[in-house]
């Protein structure tokens, strides 16, 4: 059978699915389901590929932590020498709690509040990726009031089609992200005049799950055109932040490797005479997606006239990608059965018809079996909710012989810990 994704995921001769050699059915038994399991070696290997491709020139790989922000995951990337791309003050606090340093953090996002700006300035983040002129003015005001100068790059919208799902495409004119190519020079000139702002670089991020190099090269050409215009106007631009977005294999996608992507980007950067600039990148999904699986137990089989349903104990609240983006993710048994496969829709217990994990899957399953959803390391746990008062799953990290419960299963009591009943006499 074809197992997309991580080289650390394998099926042994006895038909047992393993991650770094650990039988996944055994981990499900030990820690219960739904359960996320990640390979630390897979994360390290993914980031090393980026770092090696950029070796020999000033660079910083900033892990876009919204893909998976569990503290032990952040710790893994901090130890590997990564910076972080954050989109909220909460993410900054996570970086600091995991042992990361603020001076390697870039702060993206279209809606930073004043309070978030203050926190980030206090901590000393490396750069704000500013997404509008209005945000620039507020940031200057907040920084000036604190007696500080905010380092910025402008996130420009190069108006290129990343050829991905509309919900995860961010570099087209109609998107809420970034500053349009036409306005970018004027906004840089405005930035250079503001008292609380210091221009450090330029930034773009065109989308997610991108499986071709050409949209990146188109965006890069547009960005370099701008850099030349901005510097001609007397404003130095030190770093190029080329964003994230590199896709992974969920089924039969064949995205370029980080090495191939970066090789092509650097070739263009050098050819256009920009080889001296520091390069920042913000990969998220490609560092963690194929490092993780979501384990779930089969509760009931419900064969029907039109559809057969395989009802499992994980649901859209644990893994939102299928319901939200109609994403296809591999679903395989952790122990293979000899019986013939039947076609099943794999669905969760949540009271929504949109609560499905996979449709029309050929599986030989019985109640009590453990299934693994593959490539679940990115945008899985971070998008989990408590819908239907379901506590969020536990998370385990394997690293060679070491197995660590990195997040305990949430308790129901913790779900309503902050809630209050209304005083019975309050209406009198
Ligand atoms: C989400 C995001 C990323 C990472 O995207 P991936 O597709 O996960 O690599 C990078 N930069 C910004 C600004 C983002 O919002």
From TrEMBL:
Biochemical pathway: Amino-acid biosynthesis; L-lysine biosynthesis via DAP pathway; L-lysine from DL-2,6-diaminopimelate: step 1/1
Function, in words: Specifically catalyzes the decarboxylation of meso-diaminopimelate (meso-DAP) to L-lysine.
GO biological process per UniProt: lysine biosynthetic process via diaminopimelate
Needed co-factor(s): pyridoxal 5'-phosphate
CDD domains: PLPDE_III_DapDC
Name of the protein in its database record: Diaminopimelate decarboxylase
Enzyme class: lyase
Superkingdom, natural source: Bacteria
Species this protein is from: Sphaerotilus montanus
GO MF, one example: diaminopimelate decarboxylase activity
Binding site for substrate: 285, 321, 325, 352, 379
Subunit record text: Homodimer.
Catalysed reaction equations from the record: meso-2,6-diaminopimelate + H(+) = L-lysine + CO2
Family affiliation: Belongs to the Orn/Lys/Arg decarboxylase class-II family. LysA subfamily.
Domain Orn/DAP/Arg decarboxylase 2 N-terminal: 43-288
């Amino acid at each position: 059978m074809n197992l997309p994704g991580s080289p650390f995921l394998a099926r042994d001769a006895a038909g047992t699915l393993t991650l770094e050699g650990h039988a996944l059915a055994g981990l499900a038994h030990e820690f219960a389901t739904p359960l996320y399991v990640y390979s630390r070696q897979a994360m390290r290997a993914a980031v090393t590929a980026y770092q090696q491709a950029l070796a020999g020139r000033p660079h910083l790989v900033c892990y876009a932590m919204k893909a998976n922000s569990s503290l032990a995951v952040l710790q893994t990337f901090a130890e590997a020498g990564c910076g972080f791309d954050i989109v909220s003050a909460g993410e900054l606090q996570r970086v600091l709690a995991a042992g990361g340093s603020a001076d390697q953090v870039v702060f993206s996002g279209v809606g930073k509040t004043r309070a978030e700006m203050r926190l980030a300035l206090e901590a000393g983040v490396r750069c704000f990726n500013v997404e509008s002129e209005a945000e620039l003015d507020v940031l200057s005001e907040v920084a000036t009031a604190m007696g500080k100068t905010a380092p910025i790059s402008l996130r420009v919208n190069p108006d290129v089609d990343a050829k991905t799902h509309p919900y995860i495409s961010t570099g087209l004119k109609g998107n809420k992200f970034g500053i349009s190519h036409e306005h970018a020079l004027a906004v840089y000139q405005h930035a250079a005049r503001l008292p609380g702002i210091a221009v450090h670089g330029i930034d773009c991020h065109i989308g997610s799950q991108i499986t071709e190099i050409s949209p990146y090269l188109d965006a890069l050409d547009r960005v370099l055109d701008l850099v030349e215009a901005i510097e001609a106007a007397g404003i130095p631009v030190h770093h190029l932040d080329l964003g994230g977005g590199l896709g992974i294999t969920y089924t039969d996608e064949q995205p370029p490797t980080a090495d191939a992507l970066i090789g092509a980007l650097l070739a263009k950067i050098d050819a256009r005479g920009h080889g001296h600039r520091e390069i920042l990148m913000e990969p998220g999904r490609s560092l963690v997606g194929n490092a993780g699986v979501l384990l779930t137990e089969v509760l009931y089989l419900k064969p029907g006239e039109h559809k057969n349903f395989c009802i499992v104990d994980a649901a859209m609240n644990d893994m939102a990608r299928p319901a939200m983006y109609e994403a296809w993710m591999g679903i395989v048994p952790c122990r293979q059965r000899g019986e013939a496969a039947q076609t099943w829709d794999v669905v969760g217990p949540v009271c929504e018809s949109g609560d499905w994990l996979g449709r029309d899957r050929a599986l030989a399953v019985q109640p009590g079996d453990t299934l693994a959803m593959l490539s679940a390391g990115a945008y899985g746990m971070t998008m989990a909710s408590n819908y239907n008062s379901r506590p969020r799953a536990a998370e385990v990290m394997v690293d060679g012989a070491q197995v660590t419960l990195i997040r305990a299963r949430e308790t129901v009591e913790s779900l309503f810990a902050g809630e209050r009943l209304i005083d019975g006499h309050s209406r009198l």
